[in-house]
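Reminder to self: tokens first, then the designed residues, so the page reads top to bottom the way the pipeline ran.
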């Protein structure tokens, strides 16, 4: 089982990293995990040039290794803090660069865009209470749909401002991961 993590926090050892580690701990032992750190390996943002509408490829090649990892993955995990109700900018740049898969699907008419189906999870952290992940959830569902990825589950750690791990997260992780058995 190949697992790709799109990691959106600037630091691996803060809340988002802690939530991700708790999630990875519950994955089957045979899982092979690769992490893509959006802050330390930023992609050039999409400028809407339209090249992918013609070639199905981006004119920028800085995402080539990531696209290979994505296409080979069985499980896709988006682990991100919420910044102003959305993704942090380098994560949003990665998401926008997925436009090439939208073009492959809807302009060039290829379905599925990626042969290997995937199971996808969303992990978020946010400083405040309440549903801060609403926008990110909708964005993530949208790009999962063009990546042949089934949205399996979501775990949101809210109110990280109080700094304490919430034990209820463990059972929410377990419940989300049960989707891998289906
Ligand atoms: C630029 C910025 C914007 C933020 N926007 C929100 C927000 O809209 N809602 C919220 O609840 N928390 C917001 N936060 C708080 C972070 O989501 C929260 O601290 C999160 O746990 C950070 O993840 P990390 O510990 O992995 O860095 C924001 C933080 C920053 C730095």
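Designed residues (182 positions):
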């Amino acid at each position: 089982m190949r697992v790709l993590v799109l990691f959106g926090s600037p630091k691996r050892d803060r809340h988002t990293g802690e939530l991700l580690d708790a999630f990875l701990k519950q994955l089957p032992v045979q899982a092979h995990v690769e992490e893509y750190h959006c802050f330390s390996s930023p992609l050039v943002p999409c400028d809407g040039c339209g090249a992918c509408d013609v070639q199905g490829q981006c004119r920028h090649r800085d995402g080539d290794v990531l696209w290979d990892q994505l296409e080979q993955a069985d499980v896709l995990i988006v682990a991100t803090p919420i910044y102003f109700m959305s993704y942090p900018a380098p994560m949003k740049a990665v998401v926008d660069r997925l436009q090439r898969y939208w073009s492959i699907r809807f302009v060039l008419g290829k379905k599925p865009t990626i042969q290997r189906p995937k199971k996808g999870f969303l992990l978020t952290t946010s400083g405040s209470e309440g549903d801060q992940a609403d926008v990110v959830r909708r964005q993530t569902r949208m790009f999962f749909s063009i990546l042949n990825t089934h949205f399996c589950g979501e775990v949101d750690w809210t109110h990280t401002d109080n700094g304490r791990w919430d034990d209820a997260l463990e059972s929410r992780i377990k419940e989300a991961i049960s989707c891998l058995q289906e």
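The first strand starts at residue 2 and ends at 7.
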